[in-house]
Amino acid sequence: MTKLAPWMRELRPHQWTKNLLLAVPAIASFTIFQPGVLSQLVLSFISFSLIASSSYIFNDYIDLKNDRIHEIKKNRPLASGQVSVSAALLISALLLLAGLLVGFLAGSEFFLILLTYLVMTVLYSLWLKRITLIDCLMLASLYTLRIIAGGVATNIEPSFWLLTFSIFFFLSVAWVKRYAELESARSQGLEVAPGRGYAVSDMPVILTFGSAAAGMSVLVSALYLDSSAIRNFYEAPEVAWLAIPFLMYLIGRLWFKAHRGQMNQDPILFLFKDFPSLLAVAASAVILVLAHMGWPV
Known about the structure:
Number of strands: 0
Strand content: under 5%
Main location: membrane
CATH class of the largest domain: Mainly Alpha
Keywords: Membrane, Transmembrane, Transmembrane helix
Distance between the termini: 55 Å
Helix content: 55-70%
Transmembrane segments: 20-37, 43-62, 83-104, 110-127, 134-153, 159-176, 205-224, 239-256, 277-295
GO cellular component, one term: membrane
CATH superfamily of the largest domain: UbiA prenyltransferase
Number of domains: 2
Structural class: mainly alpha
GO molecular function, one term: transferase activity, transferring alkyl or aryl (other than methyl) groups
Order of helices and strands: HHHHHHHHHHHHHH
Number of helices: 14
């Protein structure tokens, strides 16, 4: 069991929660329990999770030098020497092959999306994460691509509104991630974030960009609620407006935590572990279900 612990930390199965985004199109269209949808989601979730773990190992290998001087990442199994480089690269290759195989079983179109995700992930790890602005645009695209992949796997086309909201919301989340990394660098007396294209002096600019993206995601949500498209899924659209304050709270909490130096992990994982954030998500979900059912109007 002791020997498996470093590997479990290296594979980062807790990060697989991000792949629940694959279910967003089915959840948003209230079709998740239709025949065949859940089975396709399971296949797509497994394939993305295997690819993700393979990518995490590869990314840790690329970032080995920078991780060893990072106050938190230096404790990762590869950076700390608990896992050998050769064994890690072998496991990464095996996970990649397994993920591609499962992805192929989920359908040819989904497989193409999976390959696109893989290429984008490799480009991000090797190059793009060091380029200012481009890195956050890539992170937002990778999150949104999961939603697109889930739609392709289940044959449920994500709406223009959903994809537009996703881009802005996840762009804000990406800026939160960079802001938190710079806050960590500043606390260590560093002027730049290791392995990134940002300096501590960029923090006010990042805060501005992140706040603007957050505001745009709320605006897109409001415009959707005021559009005729909402009638396709909600019997009482006016009830759905009650979810907007919870969305604003969710985004605001992320930024406050990052600004106070309390965001020491991935923002998406933070949302899954933070009780007030989970309450906001749960409240929004209840409101949207009631709006879908037409209650209490």
